[in-house]
Fold this protein.
Amino acid sequence: MQNLSFNKHPHEIFEHWYLQSQGRAEGQKLKQKIKIKSQTLIKNLFTQIVPSLDRMNQNAFVLATANKSGQPSSRVVLLKEYSPKGYVFYTNYNSDKAQDLITNPVASLNFFWAYPTRQVRIVGDVQKVSYEHSSRYWDSRPKGSQEGALASDQSKKIKDYSDLEDSLKSVHEQFKGQKIPCPKHWGGFIVSPKCYEFWQAMPNRLHKRTQFKLNTNGSWDKAFLSP
Ligand SMILES: Cc1cc2nc3c(=O)[nH]c(=O)nc-3n(C[C@H](O)[C@H](O)[C@H](O)COP(=O)(O)O)c2cc1C
């Protein structure tokens, strides 16, 4: 597996690792790289392994937030956009996580990829993306996902699962044959990074940990941490 020196902007390292986790990094063309004589093996690789990489939610990460008393909580969400400016995920703005982020707009993100074994930790300040930005992503979602998002009052108690199914049915009826506009209580958050840690498994547990911290000049201070 091609590695990357840490003499890069941390976002570039993130992107490289992220794409590698999905077999999509530059120079990682599985077809060319793996010289396998058997055509059957190649066929299996592309029909079974590559699609299963997609299903492995390589864009999933653990999002940790804290409420205003400092009580932490974490859950998995999906990374939908990324750039050096930040990392974007979408959610219900009335959910517990969103309420944490509105009152305490900092978050810690944790990506774990099993092969090669890597972890990326990112800490950053959080803000909502604009309604127009959320709307663009909302419009790209399948209608079923839009209906589900409208039917669910995320993080709130429900009496019975069937209430949720009924709620979905009524949303479905309400918007039959119509476009569903992005609800105001649904949208993205962008996490602007101020600290990264790249962790890579190495033999004898001498794992490599490389930390980048944003300094007051806007550049990144790099340090190596003991595993
Ligand atoms: C693989 C996976 C992906 C998920 N993606 C999202 C997501 O992108 N946005 C979201 O709001 N919840 C997502 N969830 C559900 C959250 O983990 C969580 O249950 C939900 O957002 C409510 O969290 P909260 O009550 O802490 O706000 C995902 C869960 C899993 C297991």
Remarks:
- Residues 57, 60, 73, 75-78, 89-91, 95-97, 154-155 surround flavin mononucleotide (CB under 6 Å).
